[in-house]
Amino acid sequence: MKKIFFVSVSVLLLAACKRDITNIDPKAPQTAPPSALFTNAQRVLTNTVTSTNVNLNIFRLITQQWTQTTYTDESNYNLSTRNIPENLWTAMYRDVLRDLEEAKRLTTTLESDTAIRRNQIAVSDIMQVYTWYYLVTTYGNIPYSEALDINRTAPKFDDQRTIFMDLIRRITEDIAALQRSPSSATIFRSGETGADVIYNGSIAQWIRFANSFKLKMGITIADADPATARTTVESAVAGGVFRSNADNAVFRYLSAPPNTNPVWVDVIQSGRNDYVIASTFANTVTTLNDPRASAFFTADPTGGYSGGTPGESNTFETFSHTGTVTTQQNTPATLLSYSETEFNLAEAAQRGWNVGGTASQHYNNAVTASILEWGGTQAQATTYLEQPSVAYDPVNWRQRIGQQKWIALYNRGWDAWIEQRRLDYPQLTAPSTALSAYPLRFTYPVSEQNLNRVNYEQASQAIGGDVVTTRLFWDKF
Predict the structure, then answer these.
(1) Over the stretch 262-317, which tens digit does the pLDDT of each residue have?
(2) Which domains does the chain have, with CATH numbers?
(3) Cα 251 to Cα 287: distance, rounded to the nearest angstrom
(4) From residue 384, how far is each of 9, 350, 391 by CA, in Å?
(5) CB-CB contact of 425 with 403 (8 Å)
(6) Beta bridge partners of 186
(7) pTM as predicted
(8) What count of other Cβ atoms lies within 10 Å of the Cβ of residue 124?
(9) Are 404 and 368 in contact (CB under 8 A)?
(10) SS3 assignment, position 76
């Protein structure tokens, strides 16, 4: 009995020592399930592209959809005071790409179901391609091949064209992986499908999303590499792109903090009166008798719609503000839309590519889809499109598509900026008080200049200078 007692005590002491040595806190897990990382990446990505915070996302101001009241630095293209390029860069690299990369790694390690593992990795990679697209179209050459390696403290900058072509390759392979999935397959295990806030685990919807985004990528390089663009676009269309607003990639916010609409957070919850509609946007919409005006704007004191002068101090009470449709706590955010897809198809058809239908048909579908998305009617869309100033014009197709895309992308300023640079419509004039000409890219973050100096200097020289007026490879006009 004594011997048994002695051994038992020894085992207990050994177990106690083992617990002390490992020092595991059950309330602070050492790893996270891939689904949690995926959800957080979707949330941060959507918040970043939707935000109106002047420290992060100023694209509504650059594209003159909005302008400012008291503080006008950002409307005048001051990127440095608030270190905007740094903040945007950090959010996308650290909080989106890293989480998605870790989700892929853990899925490979932890998921035993072959179909779910393949789907989960493919969709996580699709979201990475989406994220990389915004970085490369904003900065040019960027860290890519070495960027997510934690052992690389000074990653090299890869060539922007090379990155773009690799992104097309990646999304093509991701689509192929998803297409091999059985009809019953999903991204996550039962009970985890809610981790996908956008499509709730639907493989069919992710295939359409990926093809629609691939179409978008092809159109982006249409002027720089028409042959690759055509192949990419036709392949995407053959795979099946968005067919209606029901396919839109939408992140649904909640009615209570912390997961609320960022526009509500920045415009309503903050209690600040920093923004009004820009006259450039307000004048265009009202001149065209656009039925979306009442959704886009609040009325000004005269009962009409008016905007402030971009770059100047504007009195908040005098002008229209963004409409209540955009400022509800649970207003959803759109990452990719059917309207945008139809505009891309219109351009592809205009270029003579094999996408089915005519440029005019796709253009009309795009405008109609946007009007319906903003709460309008089919009858309003028909009347709007009958106006000579709105009807499709194959001679001036860049102007028509560019202007209507800019309008349809209201509340999606980052996309509006990319399309305005590519199509050069509408033709926006820098404010007289602006620090530079109209920005064609963002400068590199200060941290890269200080901590990754050699690679930063090589990248700057390769693209033609780290200034906002340097054109990126796809921006030919």
Answers:
(1) 999 999 999 999 999 999 999 999 999 999 999 999 999 999 999 999 999 999 99
(2) 34-260+330-463 (1.25.40.390)
(3) 32
(4) 85, 21, 8
(5) yes
(6) 202
(7) 0.93
(8) 23
(9) no
(10) helix
